[in-house]
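User: I'm writing a short report section on ligand binding and want a predicted complex to refer to. Could you take this sequence and zinc ion and write out the structure as tokens? A short remark afterwards would be nice.
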Amino acid sequence: MNIIQFAFDMADAVGQFVQNAKRFFYNVMLFGYRCPKCNNSLIMIAEGICKCNLCEFEFDPTVQFQRCSNCGGKPVLKVRCYSCTNCGSDIRSKFLFDGLIFEKEYFKAKMDESRKRKKEQRERVREMLAESRSAELPLQAVDIGYNTLVLVTACIFAWSLKCYNNLCKTGCSSPIFRR
Ligand SMILES: [Zn+2]
Ligand SMILES: [Zn+2]
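Assistant: Sure. The structure tokens for the complex follow:
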């Protein structure tokens, strides 16, 4: 079995599972809420943005439907979280899967930063994989998924392969590495 491929397959499966869980969460959260313009059902199209299935009106469900638990005030998005326009209390959105949303400018800056970091991580994984037993490793697999999960998994396996190689060089005594 190709252990690297297995790691990537597993990371893909986990990623798929998270996507499904997210979709399910949004369906449950938006159940019972209707479009304020035409009263039709809603679907989540991005973090903090839902859309009417009929008139296609797009809006933030937290601002539209949620109210401050202290004073009943309307939420406003402040960089990374909502706060009450009335009393200033933080409002934790119930319409967000992981509780996080980014105000547009902040989001753009964070995305640029994240892209740069991912590129560096990819380079690093590529280097680590190349240092390990290069003949058996499918380097192109590094390009399959850019999500962190894949990179982290690849890092772990690259690291363990490195340890395995080192153990074999120095004489392997750990029962974990015996065949
Ligand atoms: Zn509508
Ligand atoms: Zn309030």
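A remark for your report: Residues 68, 70-71, 73, 84, 86-87, 89 surround zinc ion (ligand 2) (CB under 6 Å). The first helix runs from residue 3 to 30.
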